[in-house]
Amino acid sequence: MNWIKQQVHNLVKTYKTNCPFKVSESKNIHVVYWDLHEDIWGFYKYERRNRFIFINDNLEEHQQRYVCAHELGHAILHTKLNTPFLKANTFHSIDKIERQANEFAVNLLLYDKNLQDYETKFDCLRENGIPLEMERFL
């Protein structure tokens, strides 16, 4: 089991849920709904030992759930990193940390799912509100 799957497994066992909203609440990570630009689905922010997940409140419910899972991935895997700051102020590549947050989100949302119960991988993703582009993490 890779380290991201292990992190997801530990979270689900500890909090007895794979719901990103419930896990965030249990870990005292504040989820904030905000009227963000349509191109911004959400972001994670760490400030003065406080963790925040901002979610675009214009998204559909299944999209908000995926965004929460993705940003929770940042909160767990990259606790003190602020991706908006990195994008705006450094030459640091954020591709790797975004990939890790996507892998975390897919593993969290599909934690108790069996791929054999679906006709295709895309059916699994669609039925669980996960963007089809995340197919590579199955």
From TrEMBL:
Pfam families: Peptidase_M78. Residues 25-125 form the IrrE N-terminal-like domain. It comes from the Bacteria. InterPro entries: IrrE_HExxH, Rad_response_metalloprotease. This is ImmA/IrrE family metallo-endopeptidase. It comes from Pallidibacillus pasinlerensis.
